[in-house]
Write a structure and sequence with these properties.
Number of strands: 0
Oligomer: single chain
Order of helices and strands: HHHHHHHHHHHHHHHHHHHH
Distance between the termini: 15 Å
Strand content: under 5%
Length: about 475
């Protein structure tokens, strides 16, 4: 068990190298955007990328998950790759043409206005290129080639960041610059992945296998509505805020929402290695005990990240570390209170990823549709209920509550269909320690403000020791 978990940790670290660098470089663009773009312009971009995220699920049609599943079982892995790659290519071309033809009414529909139809045209190219990258990326994950994966991701994100700086700061091309930079980044990924793609496409003459195609689509299609519902949790707040609060508030919300990237880093790093890991170890005698220990370790580390970011990011953002330059422009500080809510939501999403083991191993992936629809319903209801009264903070609460509902529902399903002996006593101790630290920090912030930062740092210093003692306890 220990060796397996150690390997998972190693692969998580390697995948995380590219993920951390990518997210951090992207995060570095946040202060850049807040100083070069007005909140209204940032709101347009935030809304556009929210829609891109949703459309990406439709363009991909769950074929990355289908490839991961079928290529791990089929002896003819080349057939699986070809069917998935050509499938997403054909689907992407059809959808791209429709998006190009109806760009103006689509731009008006999503709330940015028909005058921004050119952004829809640029978004179309991002979607088409990204979907072509996804299957070779998934192949690298399945073959446990994290260094190749990390290198391509890193190169792509460096191109994206440099492109943003060049187009916005040097050429002064406005908000379209952000989409152009993404296009060049996606092209870079596709070029670097081309050896993987051509090796599989040229390995044998393509032969259509109707039985394989039906099986893959049957497995993949539930990931489309479930993926859409899952994304709705993190992106539906933007269109709702556009109509209830305006584009400027969307920009303020998005700038602070981006702080959650640091928690998402941990979850993304874990997710990249977790799914291939549990597929590879599912048949081992002590598999369930290993999976239980993984949840305990993740929860211990995740709650420390949650507390650290919630305690320290607001004062860091408002500090004068670089003189008159701040991590986020003061024009956006009114949204700082959403940060803990977003971080909590992403932590709950990490729990959801842990519990994904149930539907994947039992092949009952259709449950994901209902669970994520539940999360989407919670998100939409919370946004519509709270945003009119407490503004963007209501959108932050919607993120936390919706991911929490999803994690709870998936936990219940997994325990019913693939019961795992989770270490409930240790999990209870970890949860109690997290809540206690939060309460102490809150009280000190209200009653003894000058000492608040020192107390928070002390709590964060003690917390890892408590977690280590808890996890190691027999």
């Amino acid at each position: 068990m220990a060796a397996s978990i150690k390997r998972l940790g190693k692969e998580t670290l390697i995948y995380g190298t590219s993920t951390v660098l990518a997210r951090l470089l992207n995060f570095c663009l946040v202060p850049f955007y807040t100083y070069y773009l007005l909140p209204g312009d940032y709101g347009v971009i935030a809304t556009t990328f929210a829609v891109i995220a949703l459309l990406n699920v439709i363009f991909l049609f769950g074929m990355d998950q289908s490839y991961l599943r079928f290529a791990s079982e089929q002896t003819q892995k080349t057939d699986v790759f070809q069917h998935c790659f050509y499938g997403v290519l054909a689907n992407g071309l059809v959808l791209a043409v429709l998006l190009w033809l109806f760009a103006k009414p689509f731009a008006a529909l999503i709330g940015i206005g028909a005058q921004y139809a050119y952004l829809v045209h640029l978004a179309m190219w991002i979607l088409l290129l990204d979907v072509l990258n996804m299957i070779p990326f998934t192949k690298l994950r399945l073959e446990r080639r994290p260094w190749y994966f990390a290198g391509v991701r890193t190169a792509s994100i460096v191109v994206n960041v440099l492109g943003n700086i060049f187009f916005i700061a040097v050429l002064h091309k406005g908000i379209a610059s952000i989409l152009w930079a993404n296009i060049f980044a996606s092209l870079t990924s596709l070029l670097l992945l081309s050896p993987v793609v051509w090796k599989e496409l040229l390995a044998k003459k393509p032969q259509f296998n109707a039985q394989l195609t039906r099986a893959m689509i049957r497995f993949a299609w539930p990931f489309v509505p479930s993926g859409l519902a899952s994304l709705l949790i993190s992106v539906i707040d933007k269109p709702i805020l556009v109509h209830l609060a305006g584009l400027a508030q969307v920009g303020i919300y998005q700038a602070n929402f981006k702080i959650g990237v640091f928690m998402m880093l941990l979850v993304s790093m874990f997710d990249q290695a977790w799914r291939p890991f549990f597929l590879a170890h599912a048949q081992e005698p002590d598999a369930k005990q290993t999976f239980a220990r993984v949840l305990t370790c993740f929860t211990a580390l995740g709650t420390w990240f949650l507390l650290g970011l919630s305690f320290l990011m607001p004062p860091i953002i408002q500090s004068n570390i670089f003189g008159n330059f701040h991590l986020i422009s003061p024009n956006y500080w009114s949204g700082l209170n959403v940060i803990p809510c977003v971080l909590t939501g992403y932590f709950c999403y990490g729990l959801y990823v842990n519990f994904m083991i149930g539907p994947v191993l039992t092949k009952k992936t259709r449950i994901l549709l209902w669970i994520t629809l539940l999360g989407a319903a919670v998100s939409i209801t919370t946004n519509l209920t709270l945003v009119p009264y407490i503004g963007i903070l209501g959108a932050g609460w919607a993120v936390a509550l919706s991911y929490g509902a999803m994690a709870a529902a998936l936990f219940k399903f997994t325990q019913k269909n693939y019961p795992i002996p989770y270490e409930y006593k240790k999990l209870a101790v970890i949860a109690g320690a997290c809540v206690l630290a939060s309460l102490i920090a809150y009280v000190v912030s209200k009653q003894a403000q000058p000492y608040a930062l020192g107390v928070k740092v002390l709590l964060l210093s003690i917390y890892p020791l408590v977690m280590w003692l808890t996890v190691k306890k027999a």
